[in-house]
Design brief:
alpha/beta, five-stranded mixed sheet, Glutaredoxin
């Protein structure tokens, strides 16, 4: 009887170990992308979700997206997420206007996914190559284009200004109008400095150009006289 109890106990332990191994093997395979490593998505096949922690729709999608990521190796696709609150530059680079937004990427070609938001739909989108029926993002909106790089810069600048604004109000007790006044003064000063630098460069250019033109005219007039130096 004691032997049977021991065998049952051993069987239960082994079974729990197998279950635990199975659970750990199906853990989330999500890849976190940000402004430092986003270029990884330019090679291979990806499904990328842009989200924000405060977004209710993103929170609702999270379990499905996590489960979908556990099949990433079987499907041969990398499943990733981008938190736009910590990567505002990517928010601008991809022109994300609604949350969550999902992109399919394969070998640098971007397509926006607009299908159902569940694991089965994501898997069939990859397995059946339904992305082939979706129009690619135009060249001028491509995330690595010069235009979108500029947009990305301004999004980051806007985010940094917002952080400074909040810090001035929360930590230093500055009223909202006081913060705006500081930004206005700084903007005017920077604009004046840039204007003076540009004017100085332009003035220097015209001085050199007029002097060169004057010298050329004098030389042409002298040669035109036909004088000969002996």
């Amino acid at each position: 009887m004691g032997v049977n109890s021991y065998l049952r106990f051993s069987f239960v332990v082994v079974w729990l170990f197998v279950l635990n191994f199975g659970c750990t093997s199906t853990k989330s395979q999500l890849i976190r992308l940000n402004e430092d490593n986003w270029a990884k998505m330019l090679t291979g096949e990806w499904m990328i979700e842009f989200y924000a922690p405060w977004c209710p729709a993103c929170q609702q999608l999270q379990p499905q997206w996590e489960e979908f990521s556990t099949w990433s190796k079987d499907l041969g696709v990398s499943v990733a997420q981008v938190d736009i609150t910590s990567s505002p530059g990517l928010n601008g680079r991809f022109m994300v206007t609604a949350l969550p937004t999902i992109f399919h990427v394969i070998n640098g070609e971007f397509r926006q996914y607009k299908g159902s938001r569940d694991r089965e739909a994501f898997m069939s989108f990859i397995e059946e190559k339904r992305w082939e029926n979706v129009e690619t993002v135009p060249a001028w909106k491509h995330p690595s284009s010069v235009q979108m790089s500029v947009v990305s810069y301004f999004f980051k600048l806007s985010h940094n200004l917002r952080v400074i604004h909040n810090k001035l109000m929360e930590e230093y007790g500055l009223p909202s109008w006081g913060s705006y006044l500081i930004f206005a003064v700084v903007t005017i000063i920077l604009g004046a400095i840039l204007g003076l630098v540009s004017f100085a460069d332009l003035n220097n250019y015209y001085e050199i150009d007029v002097f060169d033109h004057f010298c050329c005219c004098c030389y042409s007039a002298y040669v035109g006289r036909g004088d000969v130096l002996v």
